[in-house]
Amino acid sequence: MTTTGEEHARGRSGPWWWARWRSAVLDGSLALVSAVECGAEGIPFARDAGVPLSVGIVFGLIAGSVLLVRRKWPIAVVLVAIAITPAQMGFLMGIVGLYTLAACELPRRIIGALAGMSLLGTMIVTFVRVRQDMARGDLTLGDWFVPFAAVTTSLGLTAPPVLLGLYVGARRRLMESLRERADSLERELQLLAERAEERAEWARSEERTRIAREMHDVVAHRVSLMVVHAAALQAVARKDPEKAVRNASLVGDMGRQALTELREMLGVLRAGGDAGRRAAAVPSVAVGEAAVVVSRLVQVEGAAEGPCLSELEELIGQSAAAGMVVELSVEGEVRSYAAELEQTAYRVVQEALTNVHKHAAGAKTRVRLAHRVAELAMQVENEPPPEAASASAAGLPSGGNGLVGMRERVVGLGGVFVSGPTEAGGFRVSAVIPAV
C-alpha cells in the first residue's frame, strides 16, 4: 500500500534530523561500527606516527563517530574520510559517506568532485603502501602489480557506493514525484467529485423545475377551459339544454386531453428516473451520471410527441369554443422548425391564452405569428375585459408561475421574452426565438 506525499510528511517522527527512529538506530549502529573500526586502526597508526596508543585510539573513535551525521552533513563525512585515508582508517565511513553523498539531492559536480578526491586519495595511499610492502619483501610480484592494485582498490572502494547512491537517489526522487502526482490526482478527483455532486444537484433542480413547468402548461390551460365551460354550463343548463350538452361534451374532451398529456409526460419521466437515482446514489461516478441526467432532461423534453405549431388553430378553436373572441394572423412563409422550438412557441401561446381566461375573460384577443428569415416571433395581446366578465373570472386561481415558465422556455432557446400591460388597459406577451 502506497502513501501520499502528505502522509509521508506527517510520518516524520524521529529525533533531530531523522525522519524515523529506524533511521536513527541504523545511523547510530553504523557510527558505532565505524568508531570501533577506526579505533582499532588507530593502534598501528599511533605506532607508525610515534604517538601514544591512547591518542591513536581516541582519534580513531572520534573520526569514526562522524558517520553519525551522514544524513545531515554528508559532505563533511566524506571530507573526514578523505582526510584520514593516509592513516589507513575509515574504510566503512568512506564507503557509507560516498553512498549517502551520491543519494542526496546535491549538484552532480559536487558529488563528482568529492568522489574524484576520494578515488585519488585512495589510489595514492594504496600505491604507496603496496610499493612499501614490495620494497620490504612482503610482496614478490612484478612492478605492474603496484598500479594495478592502486587502481582496482580505489575503484572498488569508490565506484560501487557512488553508483548505488546515484541509483537510490534517483529512485527516491521518482517516488517523491509519484507521491506528489498522487496528491495532485487525489485533489483533482476530490474536486471532480464535488463538481459532479453540484452538477447532479443542479440536474435534479432543473428536473424539478421542468416537471413543474410541464405540469403547469398541461394542466392550467385545460383546467381553465374546463372551469369556463363549467360556468357556462351552469348558466345555460335550464335555459338552453342543447348548449349545455355541448358545453358538457367540451368539458369531457378537455379532461380527457389533459389526462392523455399527463400520462405521456409521466411515462417518459418514469423511463428517465433511473439515471437520476444512479447519479444520486453513486457519487464516485457522478460526473458521468450527471451528464446522463442532463441528457435525459433534454430527451424527456421532446421524447413524447409534444404539441407543434400546426395545432395552434385547434388551440385557438378551443378558446373560441369557451367564449373567447380570438383572432389568429400568420405572417411570412410557413415552414417547420425543430420540435423543441415549435413546442416552446405553442406553450407560450397556450399559456398566454390561459392567462386571458383567468384574468380577462371575455376580452378580445389577437394572436400573431411571424415566420422570419432566422427567427420565429409570436405575440398574444388582449383588450381590457368587460366588467361583468372580470367579476366572473375572479374565482380562477393563479399561482403566478405562468410568465416565469414562458420566460424560462424562451430564454433557454436563446430568445427574448417581453410581457406587460398595454396603454389601452390590456396585456401583451411577446417572444422572439432564433430559428437557427
Automatic annotation (TrEMBL):
Reaction it catalyzes: ATP + protein L-histidine = ADP + protein N-phospho-L-histidine
Q: What class of enzyme is it?
A: transferase
Q: Which residues form the Signal transduction histidine kinase subgroup 3 dimerisation and phosphoacceptor domain?
A: 207-272
Carries keyword Coiled coil?
A: yes
User: Which EC number(s) are documented for this chain?
Assistant: 2.7.13.3
Record's protein name: histidine kinase
Q: Which residues form a coiled coil?
A: 168-206
**Membrane-spanning segments:** 49-69, 75-98, 110-128, 148-170
What PANTHER family does the annotation carry?
NITRATE/NITRITE SENSOR PROTEIN NARX-RELATED, NITRATE_NITRITE SENSOR PROTEIN NARQ
Entry keyword Phosphoprotein:
yes
Q: Could you tell me the keywords of this UniProt record? A: ATP-binding, Coiled coil, Kinase, Membrane, Nucleotide-binding, Phosphoprotein, Transferase, Transmembrane, Transmembrane helix, Two-component regulatory system
Xref: SUPFAM superfamilies: ATPase domain of HSP90 chaperone/DNA topoisomerase II/histidine kinase
Q: Name one GO molecular function term.
A: kinase activity
